[in-house]
Amino acid sequence: MTNTVTRAHRVERYDVVVIGGGQAGLAAGYWLLKHDIDFIILDANPRIGDSWRNRWASLRLFTPARYTGLPGLAFPADPYHLPGREEVASYLEWYATAFELPVRSGVRVQAVRRTGATYEIETGDRVYQAGNVIVATGPFQMPHVPAFSREMAPHIVQLHSSEYREPSQLPDGDSLVVGAANSGAQIALELTPSKRVTLAGRSVGSLPRRLLGRDIFDWLSLTQMRLDADSRLGRRLRRNVLGSSDALIGMTESDLLRAGVARGGRVTGVRDGLPTLEDGRSLDPASIIWCTGFRPDFSWIHAPVFGGDGHPIHRRGITSEAGLYFVGLRFQYRLNSSLIGGAGADAEFVVATIARRYGESRTPP
Description:
Layout: E1 2-5, E2 10-19, H1 23-34, E3 39-43, H2 50-53, H3 85-98, E4 103-105, E5 111-115, E6 118-122, E7 126-135, E8 142-143, E9 157-160, E10 175-178, H4 182-191, E11 197-200, E12 206-207, E13 210-211, E14 214-215, H5 216-220, H6 232-242, E15 248-249, H7 253-258, E16 262-264, E17 267-271, E18 274-277, E19 287-290, E20 294-295, E21 301-302, E22 324-326, H8 340-361
Parallel strand pairs: 2-3, 2-7, 3-4, 5-21, 7-22, 9-19, 10-11, 10-19, 11-16, 12-15
Antiparallel strand pairs: 1-2, 5-6, 6-7, 8-20, 13-14, 17-18
Helix pairs in contact: 1-8
């Protein structure tokens, strides 16, 4: 690493800049260390693991600890324990400390631009320069809420799932949870002891927690998790996954009904300030939690590597722009690519590609 002081910015130069200090960025850092490549990890959060600490308090992973480790360091829990948000955050922080990863927290990247063979990564007070950039900001970037939410009556408190922490945030009265995948179902179940809850959205199906005496992920790790995007079946599965929501893990529609959650179809609009379901009914909740997912936001990356849907165009995280890579995308190569336990394999492939490029650039003619 070298530093240069200019009038406007301090400039730091590395071989690789990793943007994002979550599981994907830390996994990339592990492999960069293994290849002895000069790098830094930039993370916008004040503290490693904050992307998990800032989710709702009762959140639990649906992947057991056995399948939740990053490369080189197993998750410190019983193999079939389902970790909560604080456990995940602490694990990520421990991981960065254990391998002495060079994470610089509280640094928000404003722009990435390519100038010749070098990328310039602009932040508030300095510019980072690198021949290679790994974007590891994850699949959860811009909270998505339907535009018609702005037409709701002002007395209805509205939160996206990324803003929800616990039931005490919400006013007394009925609550509407929109989006019936795992996040919506978990939140709806948490609210039922204190509120009448309607869970709106299409059924996404379900997988049992256990099958033939084994955890469902024991079976998935031997089957669907092994499929890669280059195979015929993998390509089909990838299209299905990217165009839909994940199935419920360990709970069913019947479980929700038994717990007292009322089910409704999709919310299709607003009538007289109230949310309207697809069957024509209007509800009058005191609060709405939008579990309607996220949209990509890579507007700060100035490179022609994005499709019309805003997602990067890549093969296994490698783009058409030399030196620009992604890790942690949903189904980047396998079904678990965006999960903690899947980030390591994708990061290893990307870093190996960088190592070859890095070595070739230093080979004498």
